[in-house]
Design a protein that fits this description.
alpha+beta; Alpha-Beta Plaits; Endonuclease, Chain A; eight-stranded mixed beta sheet; 27% strand
Amino acid sequence: MGVMDECCLIYSTCPDDEVARTLARTLVGSGHAACANILPGMRSCYRWEGRIEEGAEVVLLLKTTRARSEAAIAALVAAHPYDLPCALVLPIAGGHRPYLEWLASWDREEVILEGDDWFARLLAGIARARRSIDVELYILNPDATGRDLVAALRAAGERGVQVRLLVDGIGSSDFIWTVVPDLFRAPVIVRVYHPAPGQVLSPVFRHGSRVANLLRLLPRINRRDHRKLVIIDGAEAFVGSFNIGDFIRASRHRDFWREGGAVVAGAAIVELGLAFEDSWDRSWRFHRQRLPMLRLWPRRFRRAPVSGLVVLNHRMVLRRTWWRDLCQRIDGARGRIWIVAAYFVPHARLIHALAAAARRGVEVRLLMSERSDVRFMPWGAAAFWHGLLAAGVQVGIYQPGILHAKAVCIDGWLRLGSSNLNHRSLLHDLEVDVVLRTQESMATFEAAFREGLGRSVPVTRETYAAWPWYWRLAGRMALVGRRFL
């Protein structure tokens, strides 16, 4: 969906200029609209209660997005003095693209690249929560950082906040064994997305038939919840590549991971919330200190307005949509394509698109890590270098440590989150990304990307050819199972 499809106008009429100004300031101030136009001097003729009426009115035009429109109309009607207010949603067929992108942006967005800053901001958000906290994580370690998060969630639950914690059965396996049993009596509701077979069979967690549990689990065992998402009061969200553990913090871990994330606020958070509800419904729940099977038919996913600011993949149609959108943006790029890839084992279509962009003069840069938590992943990524380098793609290998961030910047469009450019993100795992559009976000990313390049070793065709033959062979062999990488 393009940015023009995301934007719309809400047309309304008011009895006078003062009412129009009050409504405009209310709706813009609450974030339901980005801009309001007040057009005085209109004459209206209409039928009301069997009579033809005529009078002076003021037109109120609200510029907003489809995602905000329903809530905006509800707020408009609630504050309007008319018994039957006019509120019509009008589509936008075209316009100045930078203006439309501004119109469809988050109410607030901020890029955060340091783990200590991220965790401090996260704890502060949890501390000020009043209604709900939803946490969805791939890795939650039972170390000092993980236990600090659990303590903050406990404290929130004790003051009456609804706290839900969803962890992946493989990524958070140590946490499930060591910490979750202590949470059975805590005011924190915990669920597991596709637990490991050992968790299902354990007498600590088992409930019901072992055979039935395994039969239900095994077809899904390769599908993991790779998201890193925290939603505070349905109004603020933390999205990125940050798992929770000492390894993301420079103050706690000497060889900390380099990550990237964003704190966002705006109407599009409803999309994140509904995606969380969907994975929550499909997870395995603890009840009476046991782990029962998930329901055979999870609750049907409730459709959310499409803002263009959230990228999800929990349905096959969404996977196809984000993949097609990414390839189309690469095909249409005119200035630059900058990619930070923790795991780079992409589909051939993406390789061809990047190579074609470089051949037509687009600045295509890839920033990857020399080291990885998946030891053979750099070898698999290197198998693609020959064709990319021949096309003019610039590849930098980050040296100081593990680069775990995931970001794609195409001209003035920036996507940041948990999605990798590999088959797992495309076919198997649950992911979540956000699209950022402000100049501040772009400037922060640009500075970090250039700093990363400065700490990287450039790969050339000559240096790649000088690699030992067995390294290159290992990379080719790793690609045999690339559908699972």
